[in-house]
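Lab notebook, design round three. We kept the backbone fixed and only want residue identities now. Task for the bench partner: fill in a sequence for the structure below.
Input structure tokens:
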């Protein structure tokens, strides 16, 4: 019986995590970053989004987002060759994902309530990106910034 429980516990530990989840500790803004990982700080408030730095080299990048506002916000990292302030917007007043706008990663609003911070780590290839808040109306009101990844 003890062997069966140990085997089941071992298998449970090998369960595959959904691709949208970050690795353990990766969502914690205070967790130390591994050597070689770039860190980008993103501050969100009504209706601004400021990331620093605005460009990094390709590879593992940790985004640490701080909601300094009084409303819920989210951080969405999209790869696009379109100008960051000209992304297609739906009738629901959110940016539309598609051939020209690919969501790479995001920190959901339930993780980024007013006063909260959250983090996600993602491997980024060379290219043009946009950092946006995609809650209805927030992108249009200015919560967006260009972001570049170099080789």
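Proposed sequence:
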């Amino acid at each position: 019986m003890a062997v069966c429980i140990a085997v089941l516990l071992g298998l449970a530990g090998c369960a595959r995590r959904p691709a949208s989840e970050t690795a353990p500790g990766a969502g914690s803004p205070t967790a130390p970053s591994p050597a070689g990982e770039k860190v980008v700080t993103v501050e969100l408030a009504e209706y601004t989004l400021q990331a620093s730095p605005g460009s990094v080299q390709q590879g593992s990048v940790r985004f640490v987002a701080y909601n300094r506002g009084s409303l819920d916000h989210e951080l969405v990292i999209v790869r696009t060759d379109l100008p960051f302030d000209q992304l297609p917007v739906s009738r629901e007043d959110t940016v539309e994902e598609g051939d020209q706008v690919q969501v790479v990663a995001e920190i959901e609003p339930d993780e980024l309530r007013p006063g909260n911070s959250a983090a996600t780590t993602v491997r980024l290839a060379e290219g043009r990106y946009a950092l946006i808040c995609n809650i209805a109306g927030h992108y249009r009101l200015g919560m967006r910034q260009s972001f570049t990844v170099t080789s």
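Keep this in mind before ordering anything: The CA atoms of residues 80 and 100 lie 6 Å apart.
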